[in-house]
Each structure stands twice: as C-alpha cells, then as structure tokens.
Amino acid sequence: MTQFTTSQQAAITHDGHDVLISASAGSGKTTVLVERIIQKILKQHADITRMLIVTFTRAATAEMRTKIQTALKKALTERRHELSGEDRRHLANQIAMVNAAKISTLDAFSLQIVQTYYYVIDLDPGFRLLTDETERYMLQERVWDDLREQLYASDEAPAFEQLTANFSGDRDDSGLQDLMFELIRQAGATTDPKAYLEGLATPYAPEKWEATFSQQIWPRVKGQLLQIATSLTQASALANQLPNPIWYQQIQADLAPLQTLLETNAP
Fold first, then answer.
1. Minimal CA–CA distance to 50: which of 97, 120, 108?
2. Taking the CB of residue 80, how many other CB atoms lie within 10 A of it?
3. Helix 175-188 and helix 133-152, axial crossing angle in degrees, nearest 10
4. Residue 131 has pLDDT above 80, yes or no
5. 61: Cβ contacts below 8 Å, ≥ 6 apart
6. What is the mean pLDDT of residues 27-52?
7. pLDDT value for 202
8. Mean pLDDT score of the chain, rounded to an integer?
9. CA-CA distance, 39 to 118, in Å (whole number)?
C-alpha cells in the first residue's frame, strides 16, 4: 500500500470547498489525485461518471484512466472482506464505468462544451480546430497580406510604410510581419488576447509617456550619462596637465551641459 506524506494525505482527504494544490514534477500528483478519487468513491459513494477529471496531455489522460481502474480493482480485491455488500456492488459498478468517465485533456473538454453549446456564442456548428501548424501559418500569412493591401490602399499608407521601414532589415521587409506573428502567439497564450494586445500600447499613450520616461527610461539613460561624465572628468584632469589649454577647455565645454542635465535629475 502506498505510504503518503502528511501534505499528500491532506491533499487526498481535504474536502468541503475548492482546493488548489501546487506540486512540482515527479512529486506524485497523479498518484495523489487517483487516491483522492478512490476515497470519494469508497467513502462518499461518489459516481465516477459524475466527476470531471482533466489533464494536460492525452498520454496523461490514458495513464489516469488506467490507474483509476487498476486502483479500484485493487481496492475491491484487498478490501472485499471489509466492505459491505452494497459497497462491493458500488465499487464493481464504478470499475465497469471507468471507460465512460469524463477523463480528458483540458482542451478536449473545452471543445466538447463548445460543440454542445455552439449556439450560445453564435458559432457555426461546422467549425473545426486549426491544429496543423503549417495550415495555421499559411492562414496567418493570407490574413496579413490582405491587411497590408488594405492599409497600402488607404489614407494611412504613408504611416504604414514608415512603420514597415522601422522594423525592416537590409535584406527584406519581413520584420514587421515577424513581430506581428510573435505578438499574436503571445496574445494567444493569455486568457483575453484582445485585451492583451490593446494593453500593449497603453504605456506609450501621451498621458502615460511622462511617467514611463521618468520611471523606466530616464534611470537607464542617467546611468549611462553618469559613466560618460565620470570619463570626461577623468579626461579633464589629465588635459589640465597639458601645456596647451585647448583640450581642457573643450572637455569642460562638453562636460558642463552634461553636469547641468544630471543635476536637474530630468531631461
């Protein structure tokens, strides 16, 4: 019989409200979850077909189903004499129902919900998932090409040309496209892609610019200016020892506005 740690035992038996458990790789998450399910079936007469059990990969789903069925069979065999007739019948029924249990990946469960209630979100019931990476990339390129044509034909063409040039290299103008595709990828990993993309421009809004500059940009610029001022001060001391004063005077002329800027602590 598996010996569980105190924290694992708490994860197995804790009940009555939502529970969030954080565990690292190889810490026995699957084993603990299987035991939690078994305990609910044995002690609470829970029905496995009324449970939702989700994982991240198909392999983990298959493993989970197998482990649950194996654990139920083991419990029926090892605890047969401890269980009442009703408990044994319930356990045997649960073993038979494991294959019908809702054990799936998170994305498969989400897909099932959308397929069932597509009309709630006004979705075409004939939709399909875009799982092929090559097809996805080709579709992105097609949409991007259409968008570029629209922008080049609009009043915003000059601004778009400048934007494209800002991110283009010497060899081609794919820089902006690469950036857009990367932003789409990052947005797709968030819970609200549209809000994520809209929020990217917030720090650059006119009303936010002063705060952004003073809090993020100026500290970095000031650090570099301090290094330059230090170097000029050292050079000035050396130049002051030269017979010709022109070098000292030139360095002092360069250093003066820099020191003034640093003393004001703002550009």
1. 97
2. 11
3. 120
4. no
5. 55, 103, 104, 105, 108
6. 89
7. 82
8. 88
9. 36
Q: Which two tokens stand for residue 10?
A: 């708490």
Q: What is the DSSP letter of 3?
A: P
CATH architecture of 6-114: 3-Layer(aba) Sandwich (3.40)
> Annotated binding residue at 57?
no
CB 236 within 8 A of CB 251: yes
| 267 has a pLDDT exceeding 70 | no
- Distance between CA atoms of 131 and 136, rounded to whole angstroms? 7
pTM above 0.85? no
Measured between alpha carbons, how far is 66 from 81 in angstroms, rounded to an integer?
24
- Residue 175 among known ligand-binding residues: no
Give the integer Cα–Cα distance in Å for 261 and 267: 6
| pLDDT (0 to 100) of residue 237 | 92
The predicted-structure confidence for 182-225, as pLDDT tens digits, reads as follows 999 999 889 899 999 999 888 777 777 777 788 888 888 999 99
Instruction: Please indicate if the annotation marks 214 as binding a ligand.
Output: no
DSSP 216: I
Residue 26 to residues 10, 23, 58, 64, 195, Cα–Cα distance (Å)? 18, 9, 18, 15, 36
Q: What string of DSSP letters covers 231-262? A: HHHHHHHHHTTSSSTHHHHHHHHHHHHHHHHH
Length of the chain: 267
Residue 157 is labelled as binding a ligand: no
24 carries a ligand binding annotation: yes
Proportion of the chain above pLDDT 70, given as a percent: 99
**pLDDT tens digits, 103-123:** 999 989 999 999 999 999 999
Alpha helices in 79-156 (DSSP H): 85-97, 106-116, 133-152
The residues facing 102 across adjacent strands are 52
| C-alpha gyration radius of the chain | 33
